[in-house]
TrEMBL record:
<dbReference type="Pfam" id="PF03147">
    <property type="entry name" value="FDX-ACB"/>
</dbReference>
<feature type="domain" description="FDX-ACB">
    <location>
        <begin position="307"/>
        <end position="403"/>
    </location>
</feature>
<dbReference type="Pfam" id="PF01409">
    <property type="entry name" value="tRNA-synt_2d"/>
</dbReference>
<keyword id="KW-0648">Protein biosynthesis</keyword>
<protein>
    <recommendedName>
        <fullName>phenylalanine--tRNA ligase</fullName>
        <ecNumber>6.1.1.20</ecNumber>
    </recommendedName>
</protein>
<dbReference type="InterPro" id="IPR005121">
    <property type="entry name" value="Fdx_antiC-bd"/>
</dbReference>
<keyword id="KW-0496">Mitochondrion</keyword>
<dbReference type="GO" id="GO:0005759">
    <property type="term" value="C:mitochondrial matrix"/>
</dbReference>
<feature type="domain" description="Aminoacyl-transfer RNA synthetases class-II family profile">
    <location>
        <begin position="69"/>
        <end position="305"/>
    </location>
</feature>
<keyword id="KW-0067">ATP-binding</keyword>
<dbReference type="GO" id="GO:0005524">
    <property type="term" value="F:ATP binding"/>
</dbReference>
<dbReference type="GO" id="GO:0006432">
    <property type="term" value="P:phenylalanyl-tRNA aminoacylation"/>
</dbReference>
<dbReference type="InterPro" id="IPR002319">
    <property type="entry name" value="Phenylalanyl-tRNA_Synthase"/>
</dbReference>
<keyword id="KW-0030">Aminoacyl-tRNA synthetase</keyword>
<dbReference type="InterPro" id="IPR006195">
    <property type="entry name" value="aa-tRNA-synth_II"/>
</dbReference>
<keyword id="KW-0809">Transit peptide</keyword>
<keyword id="KW-0436">Ligase</keyword>
Length: 403
């Protein structure tokens, strides 16, 4: 759940968006056109690296494992529920703060409203941080049960399981009016249990209590994979006020939201989330056998490394501004600089040393940046140049003193 020239080719969206539903059902929702993604205002924090991802829609690229997983899930819903669930995808990722936050009862002081966590176009528009941003729009247009698939954007750390762009799927079902709270939760669990067993078989999983502003009660599902518990999805009974925001105050139902990226990583044994963004045929051709969706019960293609190109690392050390401790340092700003300067060449960033210099009254941090490409060998001179740019950006934009 829950630079205009760079974007010239995608700076405008059509005045309407087509959503292809199960078995040919077609729906339309109105949407505003794209504003320019990179603007000169105090709110805008979208980098060229992020702007280039908008419009790529890897969940619609036939050989991409994300698209294959999407098709597999949609086939399940078509098989089990016929035409009940309409499907909306290809919706502009630029949404208003009303859509992303207010409609969903997200408090004014919630962390997702901060520039440190969300990509802002301007004070009133963001790149959607979740597909739940379309919940009220779909309900207000008369969709009762529907699925929304889309690319979402959040500022995040840099490692092999986190990426600032990810694909979410939102499932919403409206039940008969006056359904009891227990009926809503029972139906939610029945549908979710069926999907989990369909995708993962007899996997060990558990339901745990959670909190989302727009559902009550709220729940999460964790699955036990590869020796550890992994969050799979968030869900809950939709708050009455959310239905009221869609001008349907008497209705009730539930919502489930989950990320396709990590689920695809687990299903296809893909170790690095950056791989989904490769256009290399050596990667995509590995999944040709299931281009129309995975046949559950049959062997699933498992990713084979393209080549084990060596990694290299560079360290960067700096003092935080005087009086600042690391708890108040915006790490996402640091991660954003690294991504923007290196593209997808950084595999991981780890904190390897931290100490407080009493004489200077300043906190020192040392980070190790691991570089590796899945497509080619990286040259030392190339990495040195990137590292130099990163150091310069750290000093200029983070207010730190390099060591």
């Amino acid at each position: 759940m829950f630079v205009a020239s760079i974007q010239s080719s995608i700076s405008r969206a059509p005045a309407w968006i087509q959503a292809v539903g199960l078995r040919g059902c077609v729906c339309r929702l109105s949407t505003s056109s794209y504003p320019e993604l990179i603007k000169d205002n105090e709110w805008n924090n979208i980098t060229p690296t992020i702007a280039k991802k908008v419009g790529m829609n890897i969940y619609q690229q036939p050989l991409n494992p994300i698209c294959i997983l999407k098709k597999t899930i949609l086939k399940y819903f078509a098989k089990e529920y016929g035409n009940e669930f309409k499907v909306f995808e290809g919706i502009s990722p630029v949404v208003t703060t009303t859509q992303a936050f207010d409609n969903l009862l997200i408090p004014k002081d919630h962390v997702t409203r901060r520039k440190s966590d969300t990509y802002f176009v301007d004070a009133t528009h963001v790149l959607r941080p979740h597909t739940s941003a379309h919940q009220v729009d779909c309900l207000s247009k008369g969709a009762d049960s529907f699925i929304v698939v889309g690319d979402c954007y959040r500022r995040d750390e840099v490692n092999m399981t986190h990426y600032p762009v990810f694909t979410q799927m939102e499932v919403v079902r409206t039940l008969p009016r006056n359904s009891s709270p227990q009926t809503i939760i029972d139906d939610l669990k029945k549908v979710t249990d069926g999907l989990i067993h369909y995708l993962l078989g007899n996997v060990n999983y558990r339901w745990i209590d959670a909190y989302f502003p727009f559902t009550d009660p709220s729940l999460e599902v964790e699955v036990f994979r590869d020796g550890k518990w992994m969050e799979l999805l968030g869900c809950g009974a939709i708050q009455p006020q959310v239905y009221a925001n869609a001008n349907r105050p008497e209705d009730c139902g539930w919502a489930v939201g989950f990320g396709l990226d990590r689920l695809a990583m687990s299903l296809f044994k893909i170790p690095d989330i950056r791989l989904f963004w490769l256009t290399d045929k050596r990667f995509l051709s590995q999944f040709e056998s299931c281009v129309d969706g995975v046949e559950i019960g049959k062997e699933v293609p498992v990713f084979h490394p393209l080549s084990k190109f060596p990694s290299c690392y560079k360290d960067v050390s700096f003092f935080l501004p005087e009086g600042m401790d690391k708890e108040h340092f915006c790490f996402n700003d640091m991660y954003e600089i690294v991504r923007n300067e290196s593209g997808d060449l950084v595999e991981d960033i780890e904190l390897i040393d931290s100490f407080f210099n009493k004489k200077k009254n300043r906190q020192s941090l040392c980070y190790r940046i691991h570089y590796r490409s899945h497509e080619r060998n990286l040259l030392n001179s190339e990495i040195d140049e990137i590292q130099m740019r990163i150091r310069g950006e750290f000093a200029q934009k983070l207010g730190v003193t390099l060591r």
